[in-house]
Design brief:
945 residues, alpha+beta, eleven-stranded mixed β-sheet, binds adenosine-5'-triphosphate
Length: 945
């Protein structure tokens, strides 16, 4: 539950004040639903549900009703039980091969081998299950974070509750961009249009009206006095009583049960699965060659067979998909902590390739804390003092000689100022109130409107109250850039309008000047437009205010024409400090930030310059200019424009397409319902968590919980980090597995006995493929990720260069292991068990230590911090201790067919095992020294096309 707002707020005129309420009557713990709510009037529906059409329910009866009627959600199909998920882990080709190997061992009487293989199979399955479970839970938790909220009136107060907590009888408010949270019988409506495609398949929005009572048999698609769960509000606003929830709604009855959330495999996962399969085939072929060679050398057939099978199983990277899922899921949690909720897994990969971030201005790049600074009316230019939302300040009038500048005036003696502020206060839904202490005031609603309320309060003008009841309304819409209400004032019914100056001026025919109305001439209009540009050039957001009284008997309808201009206000909205830092980060990361705003071009440019998005010579493109360009012409200039102003949502879509046509990977923010197509078309569609509409959130790939530009950049950084981590553990796993294959293959080629036994290979696979690989997946993002250019989406996860490095590193591990084996073996069959034990320990330790070297491609361990990845440290320590204990304890040593090592043997093993990681780390130390002496540092390219 978040904000609360008195329900008598003008936004919801049908709701009485809390103080006027009668005491809530006792309600039963459950209610009988109305079978055909569209066929009865609102009062009857309310009576049947024991609800109040304006005051809503009280909190305690809502809680009781949840108990009886259940949560307002479509039930999910039952989840797969844990035992089935566990059993699924064993339904895998490699596991069947291993079980086959265990059975063969048992048949030939190798009981120890059989048991050890089965134990390893069990441990493997268990680890897979735990990893899958953890990843699943992490994804589910993230999904819950994005659960929709709903505005509901309870006990006369407008509050926000999770949509799942709605009950029959609740009084819900909906507006453009909302998803209808339950089935509603409308109580009031203003220009409501609903997109019902989800329910009826109708692709055109349908008009709704609360007034008619329909016939019982009216088909679903024609019930205009109802709004149904899952449909989307396209325009207008309305209030309604919940008549059905969850599975009882029309959607619940039609859709039946929801499938469990299942993460689709990402392109990267698919590519890696393919790579895994290819490697498995390659390893299978090599294992077959080793089998033939060892057999020819006179090896015992059963042992050689087991060895080849184990090698094939161990070296095939079958653990990859599970580790990737968990790395992605944990990465998503990290992003969520940085205020970016990812709704689709593949977006994590795309984030790392983003080359352009298109962002709204208001609230995302600026603080969205508006303060009216200047007001221009017919009789003069006023400066407004005071800061924040506290309604304390003065009006200072300027005059041409500037004699009065700096001297406070009494607003009640300035009729033009008074009228302008009255329009500002009444054509308004925001509420300002003290938060906590008396000096700290906050706004509930749109901050632009909050600033107007505060300015009016400074003059002593309160918001409209019940004596000045508001009637019809044309809500604000970023396409029209205006908002109008019909108010019942002492002078009679009056249209009050506010919006972008150029739009309002076109609607005006007169201007209020010194208390009387003058015609608005073309030259005065031009003068006012220049003035508005001048205000905007000083980074002020400008709104014009206008009105028109309706003659008695005229229809109570809003027509935005023939208005009288009351004045213009200029308000300040400072840029976010953290956005400046984030813009700088974008530049170093080769990502171009672009501002796309509905605001005035001059305001946009001034703020963009302050933030560093635009330079001194940058130009701004307005929606009008954009409109004149063909798609091709737009694509030609799109690389040079960083600020777009007075842009409509459709034009945002064109900008996304033009950027994509130039080969860019585009992230685009949006909040309003009309932004949804652009958000959907972008490679990364970003919705605002606070101000965004449900519809935009639904089509987005990512939701910002703080509406802040810097969170987008943080997400790009994390996205790059996650991708690099995936590369790191894939590198680690493949290089380690390569070392095993190379060792066994070369030994077979030179005619050595197998340096490792089947169960030893399986064991190494268990301790290295599991925990260390996972820990590399949660490596903290490297400091340098934002100094590199974006990754090309087509770039392979294992480039040729990386593949060669892996081969070299795998070769190093194989070489030190072979050395340990050769030193101990000395061509004496009697020393074979000791030599194998030395090889077994050397390769296990070498692989564990090598994980340290995989933490970064360029930065050495001490610089990264020894303890900055405690999971990896823990995994390596545990692996090393278990390995040592296995050899030291006679029972386990016997199980693994190992022999005891002397102190000298241990020193040799450890010394050799440290060599590969040393060889991996040394170039990272030496290379920067060479580079600074040989070539200057290279800045990343701005972007690629
Ligand atoms: P951004 O797209 O960066 O969020 P914005 O908030 O300025 O920019 P819109 O909300 O589309 O964009 O506003 C466009 C213009 O409409 C504003 O410059 C202002 O003149 C006018 N405007 C904004 N809010 C209101 C409102 N509540 N009522 C009337 N007019 C408004």
């Amino acid at each position: 539950m978040s904000q609360t707002q008195p329900a008598n707020d003008r936004k919801y005129p049908h709701v009485q004040q809390k103080s006027q309420l009668t005491k809530t009557e006792a309600r039963p713990a459950h209610v009988e639903l109305v079978p055909t709510p569209h066929a009865v009037n609102v009062e009857e529906v309310a009576r049947a549900l024991h609800a109040h059409p304006s005051r809503g329910l009280d909190g305690s009866s809502a809680t009781q009703l949840i108990e009886h009627h259940g949560y307002n959600e479509l039930q999910e199909k039952p989840t797969e039980p844990a035992w089935k998920r566990l059993a699924r882990q064993f339904n895998d080709l490699t596991i069947w091969i291993l079980i086959g190997a265990a059975v063969i061992s048992a048949i030939v009487g190798e009981w120890i081998d059989c048991l050890v293989i089965l134990a390893i199979v069990l441990l493997n399955g268990l680890m897979g299950f735990l990893q899958e479970d953890r990843a699943g839970r992490a994804l589910l938790a993230l999904q819950k974070l994005t659960a929709p909220k709903s505005r509901v009136i309870r006990e006369g107060m407008l509050i926000e509750v999770p949509a799942r907590e709605l009950v029959p009888g609740d009084r819900v408010e909906i507006e453009a961009g909302d998803l209808v949270p339950a089935d509603l019988r409308l109580v009031h409506s203003a220009g409501l249009r609903v997109l019902e495609a989800a329910l009826t398949g109708e692709s055109v929005p349908v008009d709704k009206d609360h007034r008619p009572t329909l016939h019982e048999t009216t088909p679903l698609a024609e019930r205009q006095n109802m709004a149904y769960m899952g449909t989307a509000v396209d325009a207008g606003k309305a209030g309604g009583i919940v008549v059905a929830t969850g599975m009882g709604t029309q959607l619940g009855q039609i859709a039946g049960m929801l499938d469990q959330y299942e993460a689709e495999p990402t392109p990267l996962q698919r590519r890696l699965n393919r790579l895994g399969k290819m490697l498995a085939i390659a390893v299978g072929v090599i294992a077959a060659i080793i089998f033939t060679l060892q057999l020819a050398r006179g090896g015992k057939p059963i042992n050689v067979l087991l060895l080849s099978i184990s090698l094939a199983v161990a070296a095939a990277p079958e653990g990859l998909p599970a580790v990737i899922t968990i790395a992605l899921a944990l990465g998503l949690q990290r992003m969520a902590r940085r205020n970016a909720l990812i709704r689709r897994l593949p977006s994590v990969e795309t984030l790392g390739s983003v080359t352009v971030i298109c962002s709204d201005k208001t609230g995302t790049l600026t603080r969205n804390e508006m303060t009216v600074r200047e007001i221009v009316v017919g009789s003069g230019h006023f400066d407004v003092t005071g800061s924040g939302y506290a309604p304390v300040g003065e009006f200072h009038k300027r005059d041409s000689s500037r004699r009065n500048h700096g001297i406070a005036v009494d607003a009640t003696r300035e009729p033009d100022l008074w009228q302008a502020l009255t329009v500002a206060a009444w054509c308004n839904h925001a509420v300002v109130a003290p938060v906590g202490s008396r000096d700290n005031w906050g706004v509930i609603g749109d901050p632009t409107e909050g600033a107007l309320v505060v300015a009016a309060l400074k003059a002593g003008i309160p918001k409209a109250n019940s004596a000045h009841e508001l009637g019809d309304e044309l809500p604000f819409d970023s396409q029209r850039k205006t908002m109008s209400v019909l108010a019942c004032t002492p002078a009679g019914l009056t249209i009050l309008t506010k919006g972008a100056p150029e739009v309002i001026l076109d609607m005006c025919s007169g201007e209020l000047c010194g208390g009387s109305i003058h015609p608005l001439t073309a030259s005065r209009r031009k003068q006012l437009l220049e003035l508005s540009s001048e205000l905007a050039g000083r980074a002020l957001r400008v709104l014009a205010l206008a009105y028109r009284g309706l003659p008695e008997g005229a229809p109570a309808r809003i027509e935005e024409s023939d208005l009288i201009l009351a004045g213009m206000v200029g308000m300040m909205d400072p840029p976010r400090e953290e956005a400046k830092v984030a813009v700088h980060k974008c530049h170093t990361a080769g990502v171009r930030p672009v501002m796309i705003t509905g605001d005035h071009p001059q305001t946009a440019l001034a703020i963009a310059r302050e933030l560093g998005i635009a330079g001194a010579n940058s130009i701004v493109m307005s929606g009008l200019e954009l409109e004149r360009l063909s798609d091709q012409a737009l694509a030609e200039v799109v690389d040079n424009v960083s600020v777009y102003a007075r842009v409509s949502p459709e034009q945002k879509l064109r900008i996304v397409r033009a950027l994509k046509a130039r080969g860019h990977i585009v992230a685009m923010t949006g909040d309003g319902v009309n932004d949804a197509p652009a958000v959907k078309a972008a490679d990364i569609g970003i919705a605002m968590g606070i101000t965004g509409t449900d519809v935009t959130k639904q089509v987005s790939d990512m939701v910002l919980t703080d509406d802040n530009f810097s969170s987008i950049v943080a997400a790009v950084e994390e996205g790059r980090g996650i991708y690099e981590n995936i590369q790191k553990f894939v590198h680690y796993l493949l290089a380690s597995n390569t070392s095993e294959v190379l060792l066994m293959f070369c030994a077979a080629l030179v005619g050595w006995p197998a340096p490792l036994l089947a169960i030893q290979i399986l064991w190494i696979n268990l301790i290295t493929d599991g925990l260390p690989a996972l820990a590399l997946g949660v490596e903290p993002t490297e400091p340098g990720v934002m100094s590199r250019p974006p990754r090309r989406p087509s770039e392979p996860i294992i480039s040729l260069r990386r593949g060669l490095i892996m081969l070299w590193q795998g070769g190093l591990i194989a070489a030190v292991t072979a050395t340990a084996f050769a030193i101990m073996y000395r061509q004496s069959e009697a020393r074979l068990p000791v030599a194998r034990t030395a090889a077994f320990c050397t390769i296990a330790f070498a692989q564990l230590f090598f994980a340290f070297g995989c933490r970064s491609r360029t930065v050495v361990m001490p610089k990264l911090g020894y303890f900055s990845n405690p999971q990896l440290l823990g995994a390596i320590l545990v692996g090393a201790l278990v390995q040592t204990a296995l050899i030291l304890l006679p029972a386990t040593r016997h199980l693994l067919k190992a022999a005891p090592l002397t102190a000298g043997g241990w020193v040799l093993v450890l010394g050799l095992a440290l060599l590969p990681v040393t060889f991996v780390e040394l170039p990272k130390l030496i290379w920067p020294l060479v580079r600074t002496h040989v070539q200057p540092a290279v800045a990343p390219k701005a972007s690629f096309k």
